[in-house]
Amino acid sequence: MSITVRYAYNNDESAIAALLVKIHQQHAEGRPDLFGRGCAKYTAEEVKAMFHKPEAPLFVACDSEGNVVGYAICQVIENKNPAMGAFSTLYIDDINVSDRVRRQGVGSALLSACREEAKQKGCYNITLNVWAFNEGARRFYEANGFTPQRLILEQLTET
After folding, report:
1. What class is the 4-143 domain?
2. β-pairing, 4-7 with 88-97?
3. 3-state secondary structure at position 139
């Protein structure tokens, strides 16, 4: 499969929004106590507002016909904690690949674009969050060289 990764631009927002709905459904199934049904992290309008922002690169992966089959929403974050030193991070806020092209190199191609962006922007590292229930994503990131930086633990309180 031939995949092209590029920055997102006008008219990509609907395809990205549709993929956002699909990934949100997976999160709602994995943690229904935290994720509502029938919505997504960002709307098409919110996605469109992200386009062309150097501090928030948004990549799409397109198939040979130009159809968006994946995306990576990123943010460049400057560390402001003086106890940790000065550095910037490319944070992958959200990444997703269409079910129909999973395991065909699309996710790896998106990560490659994120790595290149991080280098160009002088970032020290790339970070992302993975929900504990999403074992497939965790395996994918580990296979692509990601290692745990920290763990967020929780204990539910009685309501």
Report:
1. alpha beta
2. unpaired
3. helix
